[in-house]
Specification:
The protein has about 350 residues and is an alpha/beta fold. It has 13 helices and twelve strands. Helix 8 links the parallel strand 7 and strand 8.
Length: about 350
């Protein structure tokens, strides 16, 4: 449920019961020679069974670091979770010992990584790599593991799965390699699947096929899907909720149709306006001017201040909370009303 405070929103729409996954006030830091990088600063969101949550933002916004913290695969050191909770059906994963956490990884929470070619081992066949999930985690025999690997390759629509199970990663196209990664991720029937930029470097047609496949797998198993991307256009047809991150914080959360109808934060508005549209044929693409803030020296006010056309004097000094701007959405902008109605104060 929503917090009782009328000034701020946390994590989007919340059901009365405990969600499948809840990230609450998460903080992640990196120790560097130049100082401490605050990569994630108080991020909160929730995910329910059968739901797709899209986490959007440009490189360095903290979206992938948050996902790695959920998976428990941050390099420690230099990374450190300095605060918050990550609850899977009510159990705080950050309080578990590493051996207990490793039992959850892959079985209950799985992740599809951005670069499938780097994630796959080049010297083993794809069938053996998928089958290893069953041999290591389910004690399956080599023959049984191979059979189940072929079934999974069929399920993610790899043609000629029985023959291609004996091929190596470099013998597959980028789209097919991504399907192999999806097969490995869903092998043990996870409750939560995190897809980190799963369509990067794929052509538009293959992107659509991968997104359709992920949506179909989510419907079949009622798993929760976290889709990490920088492209609002990719998530239009598959996401239920959207979280937009900037400078390590959430700047907007909303139901997906609310974001497309009327964005509530200047950054979200800029992302939407940068998407090519058929009804704007012949017009140049819009771009957000400037660059993201240095994570080593985040501003005391709004992190988007220097790039924002809505900025006022208080934006420089006062960091906006995540204002509750509707029953199911929040915006970290002092001037969210002006953003919603398209005016500039």
């Amino acid at each position: 449920m929503w917090k009782s405070s009328t000034s701020a929103a946390r994590g989007g729409e919340r059901p009365c019961g405990e969600p499948l996954l809840a990230v609450d006030d998460l903080h992640v830091e990196f120790a560097t020679r130049q100082g401490v990088v605050k990569a994630v600063n108080g991020v909160s969101y929730s995910l329910n069974p059968g739901e797709t949550l899209a986490v959007l933002g440009e490189s360095g916004s903290g979206k992938s670091v948050t996902a790695q913290a959920i998976m428990g695969i941050l390099d420690t050191p230099p990374a450190r979770v300095s605060g918050g909770q990550i609850r899977l059906r009510g159990t705080d994963l950050l309080r578990l010992r590493e051996d207990a956490r490793s039992q959850i990884r892959g079985r209950r929470i799985a992740m599809i990584f951005q670069d499938a070619l780097s994630a796959l081992n080049p010297v083993f066949t794809v069938g053996s790599q998928i089958g290893e999930m069953f041999r290591v985690h389910a004690g399956a025999s080599r023959r049984e593991a191979e059979r189940r690997a072929i079934e999974l390759m069929d399920r993610v629509r790899i043609p000629g799965a029985r023959q291609r199970a004996h091929d190596y990663p470099h013998q597959f196209s980028g789209g097919m390699r991504q399907r192999i990664m999806i097969a490995m991720a869903i092998a043990l029937g996870p409750e939560v699947l995190i897809a980190d930029e799963p369509t990067t470097a794929l052509d538009v047609t293959v992107q659509a096929q991968i997104m359709e496949l992920l949506a179909e797998l989510r419907r079949e198993s009622d798993m929760g899907l976290i889709l990490i991307t920088h492209d609002l256009g990719v998530v239009a047809d598959v996401a239920d909720k959207v979280v937009v991150m900037y400078g390590g914080r959430i700047v907007e959360n909303a139901l997906v149709h609310d974001v497309y109808r009327a964005p509530g934060h200047p950054y979200t508005k800029g992302l939407l306006e940068s998407i090519p549209r058929l009804d704007r044929k012949g017009r140049g693409l819009s771009a957000i001017e400037g660059t993201p803030p240095n994570p080593l020296a985040l501003p005391s006010g709004c992190a988007f201040d220097s790039r924002c056309s809505y900025r006022q004097d208080n934006c420089v000094t006062d960091a906006p909370p995540l204002y509750r701007i509707g029953p199911t959405r929040g915006s970290a902008c002092h001037y969210w009303r002006e953003v919603l109605d398209g005016s500039h104060g």
